[in-house]
Amino acid sequence: MEDLKATPLQAHHEGLKALMAPFGGWLMPIQYEGIIAEHRWCREKAALFDICHMGEFRFRGDIQAGGLEDVFTFSVKGIPIGRSRYGFLLNPSGGVIDDLIVFRLAEDEVMIVVNAATAPNDFKVIASRLKEPAQLVDISVQTGKLDLQGPLSREVLVEHLGSELGALPFFKFTRTRVLGEDAIVSRTGYTGELGYEIFLPSGKTAELWELLLKDPRVAPAGLGARDLLRLEMGYSLYGNDIDEKISPIAAGLTAFVNLDKDFVGKDALLKERETGPENVKVAFRVDSRRSPRHFYEILHQGAQVGMVTSGAFSPMLSCGIGMGYVKPEAAALGTRLTIKHERVEMEAQVVELPFYTGGSLRA
Amino acid sequence: MAKFFTKEHEWVEMDGAQAIVGISEHAAHELGDITFVELPKIGKSVKQFDTLAGIESVKAASDIYAPVSGKVAQVNDKLEDAPELVNQGAESEGWICRLEGVDASELGALLDAAAYAKYLEGL
């Protein structure tokens, strides 16, 4: 029996009769009322997600001398204080150990937010690349995290947590007080909607959850809705769309890689840039309401050219959408593909990302 | 006429010489939001417990098996644009198809409502 970790909100989820399931070593809510209803609520109002399972590390020290500057695919020194940046921790072959966000808290202090399942390994890898490993501390247990996402999230947040939060620009954060405690409120998220991520002491998470859920504009949403929301935006899911065998070049995520600086895996990426990746990520739209699913085969002109890594029915587009890796010759926009699994077959076409463009992300 | 159920969670109800077929309320609830129903072709012949149709939800794709043998006489084509009807009434407006040429004696291999309810308790 897997030993699953619980967030501080487990009793709250059970009280809401959430469907709970293992995810990344944690017992997490998949849905409350229903995945599509929660997805729609996030696109139209404000959805509240328990994200306490994600990992947080704090680094204190000289970023350059301490070795942190060369750990990620982007420059940590180059992040202005009060801003955050998305990028990767790579292995020497250029594969993605994790995708993560670094928050620049001060000249000599950052917070690193990583995926739940990869957190223990991330910590070991990052610490091993620092000159002084003790500069890195795992603060996951004491840190709670709630995401409030949706077009009404700003007005909800301003009303309950303070008017100064209303001026927060996209991808910027502020260190503030929430429920009397030191907290970080960041205008980030993974849904394609205007939204905020709130980091606060884990002991206060339940109080904030209850406060926000009392607001009729807010409803809880589970990982099922979160997966649909991120897929409609074409965002990668670690473990499905990216992993240690896939490079940011193959994944089409070179915008988050700075080849002008040093980092582990850079040489492999430079080489791959010259030769071209063996397989590349594509996004495709299905001609019907059928859902492509992880591991379904991708065929082009009758031959298998790849595999689906993420797929679902898109409530906003009313059709199946997906992402996967294919041979480069089948990756051009407009290419017709067949998605196949056992007796299920669906026709699809390679399209641009994001699938859904009507979100309030930058509102 | 009473409904009979399979252990795979289909139901069947005789309407004159035809059998109306669907999935149970329990199955619809377990599947979650239904997003697509692969309706069988009219005229298709199936044997009892063979694959009849397909159904997809946000969570999973599943086969629907024929509770009795027969030939597909009619399909619920409202499900093409509104598969959510299965969530709204799996044992009523969310029916899947009608079969003709049915041998009613095959109903004996199925569970009646009381036996199905007991079967669900044991799951």
UniProtKB/TrEMBL annotation, chain A:
SUPFAM superfamilies: Aminomethyltransferase beta-barrel domain (SSF101790), Folate-binding domain (SSF103025)
GO term, biological process aspect, one: glycine catabolic process
InterPro entries: GcvT, GcvT/YgfZ/DmdA, GcvT/YgfZ_C, GcvT_C, GCVT_N, TrmE/GcvT-like
Family annotation (PANTHER family): AMINOMETHYLTRANSFERASE, AMINOMETHYLTRANSFERASE, MITOCHONDRIAL
Substrates-to-products reaction catalysed: N(6)-[(R)-S(8)-aminomethyldihydrolipoyl]-L-lysyl-[protein] + (6S)-5,6,7,8-tetrahydrofolate = N(6)-[(R)-dihydrolipoyl]-L-lysyl-[protein] + (6R)-5,10-methylene-5,6,7,8-tetrahydrofolate + NH4(+)
EC number per UniProt: 2.1.2.10
Entry superkingdom: Bacteria
Enzyme class: transferase
Name assigned to this protein: aminomethyltransferase
Residue sites binding substrate per the record: 197
Record family assignment: Belongs to the GcvT family.
Stretches assigned to the GCVT N-terminal domain: 11-261
GO cellular component: cytosol; glycine cleavage complex
Gene name per UniProt: gcvT
Keywords: Aminotransferase, Transferase
GO molecular function, one term: aminomethyltransferase activity
Pfam families assigned to the protein according to its UniProt record, in alphabetical order: GCV_T, GCV_T_C
Keyword flag Protease: no
Ranges of residues in domain Aminomethyltransferase C-terminal: 282-356
Automatic annotation (TrEMBL), chain B:
Cofactor annotation comment: Binds 1 lipoyl cofactor covalently.
Keywords of the record: Lipoyl
Residue ranges of domain Lipoyl-binding in the record: 18-100
Cofactors (names): (R)-lipoate
Sites bearing N6-lipoyllysine, chain numbering: 59
DNA-binding keyword on record: no
Assigned GO CC terms: cytosol; glycine cleavage complex
Gene3D superfamilies registered for this protein in UniProt: 2.40.50.100
The keyword S-adenosyl-L-methionine belongs to this UniProt entry's keyword annotation: no
GO BP terms: glycine decarboxylation via glycine cleavage system; protein lipoylation
CDD domains: GCS_H (cd06848)
Role: The glycine cleavage system catalyzes the degradation of glycine. The H protein shuttles the methylamine group of glycine from the P protein to the T protein.
Family per similarity comment: Belongs to the GcvH family.
Subunit field text: The glycine cleavage system is composed of four proteins: P, T, L and H.
UniProt name for this protein: Glycine cleavage system H protein
Organism of origin: Citrifermentans bemidjiense (strain ATCC BAA-1014 / DSM 16622 / JCM 12645 / Bem) (Geobacter bemidjiensis)
